[in-house]
Every structure is written in structure tokens, then in C-alpha cells.
Specification:
With 133 residues, this protein is an all-beta fold. Helices cover 0% and strands 50% of the residues. The chain has two domains: 48 residues, no CATH class; 70 residues, no CATH class. The two termini are 24 Å apart.
């Protein structure tokens, strides 16, 4: 799985998310090294803000951009990094989130308390990562 988040300086990083001794890190996608845990953390892996985490949903928007969604990263703690999307007509705004009970990605309405399950992802486009709201 590929994840996206902001590091502690606010820069976006993508890679493989891990948690070591209560801190969250991103092992960068292009990393070709063995992980070693030391007192200062994981070498060459930036510490991240877990509230900005988002997981690649394995689907793309109408422009072919990968869609990332928010999820529960610790018990009862949900990330806020899922993409903000809009319908093709521009009238509806959504946030991409993992729906635990159905074990699938949903579009949750930002302007109303409603959602779209099993959306046709090609009918929507990304506005911005939610963590940049």
C-alpha cells in the first residue's frame, strides 16, 4: 500500500507508513535500504503528522490522478488527509474516506450528511488533498 502525508515541516511525502515507539514515519517510495531503528528514529524516513495520512485507494479520478482516502490510523482516530472531490457538474463536493462497516471507500458529502458508496470514480475529479484545506 502507498500512503501520503505531510511531514513535520508540512511537506507532502509518499511511501510506506509505519509506526515506531509511538511516532509515525514514512518510508519513502524510492528507498532501497534496510530499515534500522535507532534512538533518533528510522534512518532516512521522515516523521509525519498522522492526522494528514491518506491511503491510495487503487483508483484514479477522471484525469488519471491517483485518489487517496482518509482512514482510521489508530483506534478511534481518523486521518483527515483524504482527497476532496467534486462531481463533474461541480455541484457536489465530497471527501474520500474508508467506511469500516462495509470495508470499502466512500465519498462523503461535505455540504450534506450523505455519501456515495461504490462510486464511478471516473465521474469525479480531485479538488485538493483534504489535509491542505
Amino acid at each position: 500500500m502507498i500512503y501520503r502525508a505531510n511531514d513535520l515541516q508540512g511537506d507532502e511525502v509518499k511511501g510506506h507508513w509505519c509506526k515506531v515507539e509511538g511516532k509515525h514515519y514514512m518510508v519513502l517510495e524510492n528507498a532501497y535500504f534496510w530499515l534500522r531503528v535507532r534512538e533518533e528514529g528510522i534512518m532516512r524516513s521522515p516523521e509525519i503528522n498522522p492526522t494528514t495520512l491518506a491511503q491510495y485507494t487503487t483508483v484514479d479520478d477522471k484525469h488519471g490522478n491517483p485518489i487517496y482516502g482518509s482512514f482510521e490510523y489508530e483506534e478511534n482516530k481518523f486521518s483527515k488527509g483524504g482527497d476532496r472531490m467534486q462531481s463533474l457538474d461541480g455541484k457536489r463536493l465530497f471527501k474520500v474516506k474508508w467506511h469500516i462497516k462495509s470495508a470499502s471507500w466512500y465519498l462523503f458529502g461535505l455540504d450534506r450528511a450523505w455519501c456515495v458508496n461504490s462510486p464511478n470514480w471516473g465521474q469525479f475529479e480531485i479538488i485538493a488533498p483534504a489535509c491542505q484545506e
